Amino acid sequence: MKFAKQLERDAVPEWRAKYLNYKAGKKHVKAVSRALLRSPRNPRSAAERRASTTSNLELPLPAVRPSHERTRLLGPADVVRRLRRASVSATTPPVVAPPCPRRETAGASTAESPSGLRRIWTLRSEAAQFDVVRDRTRDFYDFMDAELDKVDSFYRTKEQQAGQRLGLLREQLHEMRSRRLQEMAAESEGDHGAASQLSSAEPGLAKSAGSGWAQPIRVKMFRPGPNSEALRAMPQTPRLPACSTDTRRDYSRRPPDDDVSYRTAKHKLKLALQELYRAIELLKAYALLNRTAFRKLNKKFDKAIHAQPPLRYTHERVNNAWFVTSDVLEGHAKTVEDLYARYFERGNHKLAAGKLRSLSRKVTDESASSFVNGLLIGVGAVFALQGLVHGSRLLFVGDSRVRDEASYLLQLYGGYFMMLLLFALFCLDCFIWTRNKVNFPFIFEFDQRSHIDWRRLAKFPSFFLFLMGVCMWLNFSGYGAEGLYLYYPVLLVCVTLGIIFFPAPVLAYKSRKWFVYAHWRLLLAGIYPVEFRDFFLGDMYCSLTYPAANVELFFCIYANQWENPTQCNSSHSRLLGFFLTLPAIWRLFQCLRRYRDTSNVFPHLVNGGKYAMTICNYVLLSVYRIHGSRTNLGLFIASATINGVYVSVWDLFMDFSLLQTQSRHPLLRDVLALKRRWPYYCVMIVDPVLRFGWIFYAIFTHNTQHSTIISFLVSLMEVFRRGLWALFRVENEHCANVAQYKASRDVPLPYHIGPLMDSASAEPTPRRSVADDQAQEQQQQATSPSAPATGSKVAVRPRADAVIGRSLSRRLALAHTQDFVKRRPSADGGGGGGADGPVNEYGEDFEDDDEDDDEDDDEARVGLRRRFQHISEEDLKRGSEGPSS
């Protein structure tokens, strides 16, 4: 594999602009090679040409010069060698000396001859060609120096941030340990006196420790686990009087109402250490890949100019750079492993290192998954089409009851198919994101250890399509049991739910668990903080109004045992209209929750107004279907028009961040993740057009219930539009992370440690500057190294309206980043422990913590006490210091 492709594959997507621009470097090398090819190969060839132009009876001009005036012309190898020596030593590159002027001798008449004039012009052209070689070589070394400074400065910044995060986590772990020891001490006492003394010494701890008549029972039933025993076995620092505890600390206690339980704090700090270790590994890979890129580019240059000794720039400049010589990250990684082992793995360093190093799942071959997907889709599509043909024939039989039953059965299967289609489009989006290096697992905050490839994910819609096809074929072909004719949809739904909720750790268990928990959070929208998966799933359901209406239809029909099924359709059921508005209601509650958390009217209340208009639109549609009348139709058309314009503008300006007038790419944005631009222009046209699919409801007004085919087709258009929306919405979020160089998340911390938390939250997030965008544009697209200069830069003062327009455009483009809460420490230091909802705010289980804290093996506890006996007072003091630098 060529290194350029390897660099593109292994680079961190969010840091792509901060890597060595290998392609631009290769252009510089090619420019030097072309300049060398156009220059004379060596001085000997020039001398031979001069000798051939002179008369056989006269001596050549250099022969009559004094020895001290003889000057050898510099060949290309000499020029490049001197330039390399000059560039490395940071001096001005040497200038090729022109030929020494000849003395006015008897041979001067020879210079006036045609052969002499030809020789003068030849020497001048050779000197000009050597100047080109010199300029191209200087450009190459200037490029290498600029790229080296870029890589080195970015590495230093990220290394410093990792050190600050490590120091903060160290203090948090010490705080967790001290609080846990206080709780265990209170539990061991088990009387009111100890609890009251603890409350007076440390406010807020007595509440978490617990007291009262149930305390002895609690102590007997819930014994501390091995990790807690290990914390107790750690040697203690000398205890100070209680009155002077807070005065000697550099932080303050949180109020008692915001106290965090040990299990919550332990889970958060474990995640924080894992994320920090992953960030350190990413930075180490960044340094190694850039070092390899510099070496390979230097090797190509040396090969082009035949430099001796080779790799001199690498040895003298790159190998002395900070990102190569620094061992700070190695120390940070060992410190994280030590902390993880000491606090979470009972001192087992090998086990801790193994868990931390297995955070990223290795890429595996998914060819078998692709084969299974193709097989299931092919067989399922055949069965589904056969069932659809047989079911369509039943719509034209003479028995009206059979016609109605077949019609409603097909509607139920149609709603199921809509969900499968959107699921399949999401898998297709995952494929496109993977091909274009869009880091969607980081955006959705998937667990890297259990994250499955998009081909394995596609097994679910493929299998469900196969299952639906078989059920449809058995339902309408006559081969199935007659008693199950009306109950095949029930069988299909039950099998689907059984697979999703299957509790055994098989069939991508953690992914299914994540999926179920995401729906639970959506069902309780407004109670939980809004994460990316919450609002994304809510928006996906906003396009599944056809399946949402089928929920009411399904339960209504089977509750009435298929007696008079027309009472359940949209012309009679108000409950069906409510289910149409339910996804928009969820999103409205999420917008209100975001406004409650941030107090920002824009974009949250404005976004909530969009969903309020959507709710109004579906309410008027339901009213028109039930009551009819031209007035209701006019109200629906007016509401749908306003809503269509509203949501189309929001999609283009906020969700996609397009139509930016100041962008380098016309009507797009500065940072683009897709390799081609035409998809952006297509979605700018297709999305608004599909948003106005409701027009068909207004056109076919002869049937107040509206044709089921029209409803199905309009919903099908909306599902395809949502698939496009998901593609560009996640791509836009990835571009926002690229602009901030954000490749790892900041897990909120449980405790408020004043100065450290304040300094950590005050750290500015690095953003992509305009200079970075322009530099990348110039390196990747615009110019080759041999391009002519465009002239000097002229400073033009921007107009006031241009500044206002740019500010408004930027604000609209960044509005999408506020749709969900970022997992980072807040300014007040609150980590979200217990204030934002249930204890487990990440949707992840506490299985590891339960195993650690609920074991009561006496032998294990005795062994843990002995294991931690070797931890000395000096180790604790060293652990309480800041990270090494």
Automatic annotation (TrEMBL):
<dbReference type="Pfam" id="PF03124">
    <property type="entry name" value="EXS"/>
</dbReference>
<dbReference type="GO" id="GO:0000822">
    <property type="term" value="F:inositol hexakisphosphate binding"/>
</dbReference>
<comment type="similarity">
    <text>Belongs to the SYG1 (TC 2.A.94) family.</text>
</comment>
<protein>
    <recommendedName>
        <fullName>SPX domain-containing protein</fullName>
    </recommendedName>
</protein>
<feature type="transmembrane region" description="Helical">
    <location>
        <begin position="485"/>
        <end position="507"/>
    </location>
</feature>
<dbReference type="GO" id="GO:0005794">
    <property type="term" value="C:Golgi apparatus"/>
</dbReference>
<feature type="region of interest" description="Disordered">
    <location>
        <begin position="37"/>
        <end position="58"/>
    </location>
</feature>
<feature type="compositionally biased region" description="Low complexity">
    <location>
        <begin position="772"/>
        <end position="790"/>
    </location>
</feature>
<dbReference type="GO" id="GO:0016036">
    <property type="term" value="P:cellular response to phosphate starvation"/>
</dbReference>
<keyword id="KW-1133">Transmembrane helix</keyword>
<dbReference type="GO" id="GO:0005886">
    <property type="term" value="C:plasma membrane"/>
</dbReference>
<dbReference type="InterPro" id="IPR004331">
    <property type="entry name" value="SPX_dom"/>
</dbReference>
<feature type="region of interest" description="Disordered">
    <location>
        <begin position="225"/>
        <end position="260"/>
    </location>
</feature>
<dbReference type="Pfam" id="PF03105">
    <property type="entry name" value="SPX"/>
</dbReference>
<dbReference type="GO" id="GO:0006817">
    <property type="term" value="P:phosphate ion transport"/>
</dbReference>
<dbReference type="InterPro" id="IPR004342">
    <property type="entry name" value="EXS_C"/>
</dbReference>
<keyword id="KW-0812">Transmembrane</keyword>
<feature type="transmembrane region" description="Helical">
    <location>
        <begin position="416"/>
        <end position="436"/>
    </location>
</feature>
<feature type="domain" description="SPX">
    <location>
        <begin position="1"/>
        <end position="315"/>
    </location>
</feature>
<feature type="compositionally biased region" description="Basic and acidic residues">
    <location>
        <begin position="870"/>
        <end position="885"/>
    </location>
</feature>
<feature type="transmembrane region" description="Helical">
    <location>
        <begin position="633"/>
        <end position="659"/>
    </location>
</feature>
<keyword id="KW-0472">Membrane</keyword>
<feature type="transmembrane region" description="Helical">
    <location>
        <begin position="371"/>
        <end position="396"/>
    </location>
</feature>
<feature type="domain" description="EXS">
    <location>
        <begin position="567"/>
        <end position="761"/>
    </location>
</feature>
<feature type="compositionally biased region" description="Basic and acidic residues">
    <location>
        <begin position="246"/>
        <end position="260"/>
    </location>
</feature>
<feature type="region of interest" description="Disordered">
    <location>
        <begin position="755"/>
        <end position="798"/>
    </location>
</feature>
<feature type="region of interest" description="Disordered">
    <location>
        <begin position="819"/>
        <end position="885"/>
    </location>
</feature>
<feature type="region of interest" description="Disordered">
    <location>
        <begin position="180"/>
        <end position="211"/>
    </location>
</feature>
<feature type="region of interest" description="Disordered">
    <location>
        <begin position="89"/>
        <end position="114"/>
    </location>
</feature>
<feature type="transmembrane region" description="Helical">
    <location>
        <begin position="457"/>
        <end position="479"/>
    </location>
</feature>
<feature type="compositionally biased region" description="Acidic residues">
    <location>
        <begin position="842"/>
        <end position="859"/>
    </location>
</feature>
